Amino acid sequence: MERNLVVILITMLMLGSCVSPSDRKVSEQRQIKMLYTDWSESIAMTYLATILLERDMGFKVTTRMADVDEIFNDIATGEADLFLDVWLPATHSEYIELYGDRIEVLGLNYQPARTGLVVPDYMGVDNMEQLREYYQGPIVGIDSTAGIMRVTREALDAYNLPNELLVLSEEEMTVRLRTAVQRQKDIVITGWEPHWIFFRYDLRFLHDPQMIYMAEEQIYSIARTGFAEEFVHVATFLNRMVLTERQMNSLLFEMHLSPDPLEGVRKWIQSNEFVVNQWTRGLGPEREKIM
What we know:
Layout: H1 2-16, E1 31-36, H2 40-55, E2 60-65, H3 68-77, E3 82-88, H4 93-99, E4 103-120, H5 131-134, E5 139-140, H6 147-158, E6 165-166, H7 170-183, E7 188-193, H8 197-200, E8 203-205, E9 217-224, H9 227-230, H10 232-240, H11 245-257, H12 261-271, H13 273-280
Parallel strand pairs: 1-2, 1-3, 5-6, 5-7
Antiparallel strand pairs: 3-9, 4-7, 4-8, 4-9
């Protein structure tokens, strides 16, 4: 019932943010404030959008990293404009229910996405019910406000698992994973896909018989209320910026390989100019229209 309500809210919010360039005034305001988390796909999509908004569409974009609680609050209060990494209908559902009347869902960025507990292929465990018997170590998590951490706490309760849930950064989580894989040690992490770890290491999601984690999710962009009306071209651009699985994986891998993530994204853009040109085509700098 709760997830059905979230789907209805998403639909209503997206319908409310649809505007036609022919009958709206386009704002003279040129600066956009974008927030992101320290998750790989959040950094990648934020850098990608920032480069294209500045290079091809003439905007000045400021970005700031924050935790999810702060991001949703700042979008809802108008302190910031955009966040491009909302996982629905499950992971960020509580934020949509809390702030739904004060934000706009602009459109889909990526699908299919997935969250769950992840292990190396060499571990002799296949589903979450087996963890109680075969694994007594900690579950290596990320920041405490992340939606995947809330769902993981629910999963630990549902499966009556005594494992400690560690609160770390994504970087710390991936370092622990790398060390464990190098030493062929057992490890369980809170994982999500898309993520570069899945093409760096042989990993798998643990089967979730109770379906605490959604089998499939989608990633959306959200904005403060009124943003789509003020920034018609930006809203159109974000609705066009839908990455395929292959595009997202190559973007994350390029960013991971580069010492500077921003330069990694620039390199990906150079290799995918035809793709990004389709997103920005006809969307030059916006000016106030004379009605």
